[in-house]
From TrEMBL:
Pfam families per record: 2-oxoacid_dh, Biotin_lipoyl
InterPro entries (alphabetical): 2-oxoA_DH_lipoyl-BS (IPR003016), 2-oxoacid_dehydrogenase (IPR050537), 2-oxoacid_DH_actylTfrase (IPR001078), Biotin_lipoyl (IPR000089), CAT-like_dom_sf (IPR023213), Single_hybrid_motif (IPR011053), SucB (IPR006255)
EC number(s) given by UniProt: 2.3.1.61
Biological processes per GO annotation: L-lysine catabolic process to acetyl-CoA via saccharopine; tricarboxylic acid cycle
Superkingdom, natural source: Eukaryota
Lipoyl-binding domain: residues covered: 70-144
Subcellular location: Mitochondrion matrix; Nucleus
Gene: dlst
Chief localization: mitochondrion
Keyword line: Acyltransferase, Lipoyl, Mitochondrion, Nucleus, Transferase, Transit peptide, Tricarboxylic acid cycle
Protein name from the UniProt record: Dihydrolipoyllysine-residue succinyltransferase component of 2-oxoglutarate dehydrogenase complex, mitochondrial
Top enzyme category: transferase
Length: 462
């Protein structure tokens, strides 16, 4: 009995040591040996004739680290300007998820926040309905860690017997009906009654009705197919609602006026064609037209600070900025987003192209944060990527102006008294007439035109 007690103590120590070291397999073996030795010790005590009240038996219960732990995942903290959002679930109860797999997206006024799974497991419970509103720190769902791993491993084994099973018999091989239900086959046709002579010219009504009845369902189906009129309703997401609200606020608040001009893209196109390979080789990024317009806009904003300013309606003051942060409008399936390129006045073409490429990649992956879209002193919207020829953009509040780019089309223009075909682009500047007068607006747009048509103006500072 003493040897079993020593073994019991030794197995208990091994189990505790294995638990501390995280060795679950050794902990299970030690726990099993501990249970066996514990039972042997009890049997020896019962077999002995010693009084049981002398012995004090203490039960030990060991456990291994539980993999099936249930955790509650909460809503991540939002930015300061965002207070709540709507939940859109990507997974359902019972779905198996891997670590860092997106379980849901929270759509806010400015962007969408993805909520990944903290570990591999199974979704135990959804604590918020689809489309429900949540704030920072709100419990979202319960996850049972590690619960889906064995099922995923057993899935291929379960599919093998199913694939080896023979296909079900076809309908053509179905057994014939019982003989009792089959009637005798007639050996002769019944006599046909004579038809009256006056009935030979016309068809009986009974013979016409079946053909009409058979044709009517086909005609009805054809008519129904031609006249199908369906509609569907989709709830507006928070981003789309916020965009609509801001655009309406701009129309109600700003005195918007638009001025137009056209840009000859011959020189910038020739420069891009000449240096695009060397530019790609050195900077590992392609040279586009957007960098030229962004740099030209920064140059023009420095020359015309009123376009870079804004009216503070609360204090009735005009705020002039010494820096240039240009927002670039990007269309996404969920709505229009405007990531910001900051301190453009100190950037060159390569810096601008890299920043635009980085922000565009984040927008396509839905990884834009609120900080990427906060601020902005001026906006450029490029509708030309969709083939737009002409349009009037709407100001992005609280900014005071927006530049609209459009498609490049070959058009006949007068050059030196002669008509030539040149690649031309219409540009539009919508500005707040409360702050910006027509002189500043037209001068600003002509400055952009001159820089894009001849980039040497930047070097000469003209």
């Amino acid at each position: 009995m003493l040897s079993h007690s020593r073994c019991l103590t030794r197995n208990f120590s091994r189990s505790l040591s294995a638990l501390r070291q995280g060795n679950q397999a050794l902990a299970r073996r030690s726990s099993t040996a501990l249970t066996i030795n514990h039972s042997i010790s009890l049997n020896n005590i019962v077999k002995s004739n010693l009084p049981t009240n002398v012995f004090q038996i203490q039960y030990f219960r060991t456990s291994v680290a539980y993999r099936d732990e249930v955790v509650t995942v909460k809503t991540p903290a939002f930015a300061e300007s965002v207070t709540e959002g709507d939940v859109r679930w990507e997974k359902a109860v019972g779905d198996t998820v891997t670590e860092d797999e997106v379980v849901c997206e929270i759509e806010t006024d400015k962007t969408s926040v993805q909520v990944p799974s903290p570990a591999a497991g199974v979704i135990e419970e959804l604590l918020v309905p689809d489309g429900g509103k949540v704030e920072g720190g709100t419990p979202l769902f319960k996850l049972r860690k590690g619960a889906g791993a064995p099922k995923a491993a057993e899935a291929p084994k379960a599919e093998a017997p199913a694939a080896a099973a023979p296909p079900p018999p076809s309908a053509a091989a179905s057994p014939p009906p019982p003989a009792s239900t089959v009637g005798p086959i007639p050996t002769s046709m019944p006599p046909v009654p004579p038809v009256p002579a006056h009935a030979m010219d016309t068809k009986p009504v009974s013979a016409i009705k079946p053909s009409v009845a058979a044709a009517s369902p086909a005609a009805q189906a054809e008519g129904a197919a031609k006249g199908v009129r369906t509609e569907s309703r989709v709830k507006m997401n928070r981003m789309r609602l916020r965009i609509a609200q801001r655009l309406k606020e701009a129309q109600d608040t700003c005195a918007m006026l638009t001025t137009f001009n056209e840009v000859d893209m011959s020189n910038i196109s020739e420069m891009r064609k000449t240096y695009k390979d060397a530019f790609l080789k050195k900077h590992n990024i392609k040279l586009g037209f957007m960098s030229a317009f962004v740099k030209a806009a920064a140059y023009a904003l420095t020359d015309q600070p009123a376009v870079n300013g804004v009216i503070d309606d609360t204090t009735k003051e005009i705020v002039y900025r010494d820096y240039v942060d240009i927002s670039v409008a990007v269309a996404t399936p969920k709505g229009l987003v405007v990531p910001v390129i900051r301190n453009v006045e100190g950037m060159n073409f390569a810096d601008i192209e890299k920043t635009i490429n980085m922000l565009g990649e984040k927008a396509r992956k839905n990884e834009l944060a609120v900080e990427d879209m906060d601020g902005g002193t001026f906006t450029i919207s490029n509708g030309g990527v969709f083939g737009s020829m002409f349009g009037t953009p709407i100001i992005n509040p609280p900014q005071s102006a927006i530049l609209g780019m459009h498609g490049i089309f070959d058009r006949p223009v007068a050059i030196g008294g002669k008509v030539e075909i040149r690649p031309m682009m219409y540009v539009a500047l919508t500005y707040d007439h409360r702050l910006i007068d027509g002189r500043e607006a037209v001068t600003f747009l002509r400055k952009i035109k001159s820089v894009v048509e001849d980039p040497r103006v930047l070097l000469l500072d003209m």
